[in-house]
Design brief:
Layout (H helix, E strand, L loop, with lengths): L1 H18 L22 H13 L6 H14 L3 E5 L2 H11 L15 E5 L4 H9 L3 E5 L1 E2 L4 E2 L1 H7 L4 E7 L8 H10 L3 E5 L7 E2 L2 E2 L6 E5 L12 E5 L2 H11 L47 H32 L6 E2 L7 E2 L4 E6 L7 H10 L19 H6 L4 E2 L4 H9 E5 L6 H16 L4
Length: 442
């Protein structure tokens, strides 16, 4: 009883501690306008301390709660937490290499189609699993995969497609799914930048065989570090969690025994009958579990997620309205037909005849304390990581030309729309962009 009472007192003090925090007043030109960041209150701190007092440390009660709640929110059957969105992508691709999938499993030398205009950890797991990434261009103003090029890219070696919804804007899911169904391809949705986006009234992350999420601080909600793999397929769920949890065959939750009710009645591989199922390994796996302290933060963030999504949409709409008259200078990002994006950022591509370069406007904004970001890798193939593969001319394939991808690499940047972006910060950003464009000599 004393411990329970003391816990309540500690958590009450945590709330008081947070309420003493004062947010600095925004001063235009002096205060930094971040492109993204954490948005939280005392509830995240209370959950974090509550979890710390349990001292469970690994995956536990908060992780189980989070997985159940996020799956319900998105509209999928299963959610498997992991330690980052990058690990989620690694698990999603690696899961498809499982012998349990028979003829459909990915093998070394098989092709996986993706785009070069994105984040490297969408691409890295393809290479890390010995498969061949096949790159296709994107279209503007959607900034998503060119579905005509996607269709042309399919070969006899193609086994899967992994695509991100660019900065929250869903790709043309109907067309992509049609192509995947026609050619019997796995589809992985990289949903890391688009939590809360909808397509045809359904949340993204529900359309692929697998989908991934990220909870890094700049994302739609945060655990600090953290990610998840989503699926409706129980076999894929168990394979993902096997690779996540050392490669074990057992699916018992952390700290639990005998979920299958025949722990000592299995005979797998060349092991003796009755070998402890908790120590039977069906894959060469990793340890990519999340801690319960991270999940505790996530549970508090989930309560705020609908509000976060609304704020992102509001900020995006405000910026677009303010800058729309400059469509002769910029290529904006148009929502895919049938979609309702939960925007990750506000994309701007400087048109070649705009009269200024991306470097000039980015330096101007950064000089006025407005953070900017590139569209991640721009063109991943141009990066030092690909030097050896480019010189050897092997290990990857390009289908068609990457014209728009290179334009993005040279001319595209984005600014923030995250929930911590107050009205005065949004106004300051748009005024500075107007000021810059207005000063450009004709």
């Amino acid at each position: 009883m004393q411990r329970d009472e003391l816990r309540k007192k500690i958590l009450k003090d945590v709330k008081r501690f947070h309420l003493l925090k004062k947010e600095p007043k925004f001063v235009p030109g002096q205060s930094k306008v971040n492109y993204a960041g954490r948005v939280y209150d005392e509830k995240e701190l209370i959950n974090l301390v509550d979890s710390a007092l349990d001292f469970w440390l690994t995956t536990g009660r908060f992780a189980a709660e989070f997985e159940k709640r996020l799956a319900k929110f998105i509209g999928v059957k299963y959610c498997s937490l992991t330690n980052s969105g990058s690990s989620a992508n690694l698990l999603a691709i690696t899961a498809l290499t499982s012998p349990k999938l028979g003829k459909r499993r990915l093998k070394k030398g098989d092709e996986v189609i993706t785009v070069a205009a994105g984040f490297p950890t969408t691409i890295a797991p393809i290479i890390q699993n010995g498969c061949i990434p096949v790159f296709v261009d994107v279209t503007l103003p959607s900034y998503n995969v060119d579905c005509k090029q996607l269709e042309k890219a399919v070969s006899k070696k193609t086994k899967a497609v992994i695509l991100a919804h660019t900065l929250g804007n869903p790709f043309d899911i109907d067309k992509v799914k049609k192509i995947c169904k026609k050619h019997n391809l796995w589809l992985i949705e990289d949903n890391c930048d688009s939590l809360g986006s909808k397509y045809q009234g359904k949340y993204t992350g529900t359309f692929g065989h697998l989908a991934t999420c990220s909870f890094y601080p700049p994302h739609h909600m945060t655990m600090g570090e953290g990610g998840a793999v989503l699926t409706n397929d129980i076999k894929l769920k168990r394979i993902v969690e096997s690779f996540r949890d050392w490669g074990r065959d057992c699916w018992c939750p952390s700290g639990k025994d005998d979920t299958c009710k025949k722990r000592f009645k299995w005979q797998l591989g060349e092991l003796p009958f009755g070998y402890d199922h908790k120590y039977i390994y069906s894959h060469f796996g990793f340890n990519l579990k999340v801690t319960d302290m991270q999940a505790a933060i996530g549970c508090a963030q989930l309560d705020k997620l609908p509000g976060f999504i609304s704020a992102r949409k509001k900020n995006y709409k405000t910026i677009r309205k303010a800058l729309d008259k400059y469509s002769d200078k910029f290529i904006f990002c148009d929502a895919t037909p049938g979609s309702d994006p939960s925007w990750f950022g506000f994309l701007l591509t400087v048109k070649p005849d705009a009269g200024f370069s991306r470097e000039e406007i980015v330096n101007f904004l950064e000089g006025h304390k407005i953070q900017t970001r590139m569209l991640f890798a721009g063109n991943m193939l141009r990066h030092p990581a690909f030097d050896g593969m480019r010189k050897a001319k092997k290990g990857y394939r390009i289908s068609g030309e990457l014209t728009n991808t290179d334009l993005i690499m040279n001319n595209t940047f984005w600014i923030g729309v995250y929930p911590g972006m107050t009205d005065d910060k949004v106004k300051y950003m748009t005024e500075k962009i107007k000021e810059f464009v207005g000063n450009v000599k004709a």
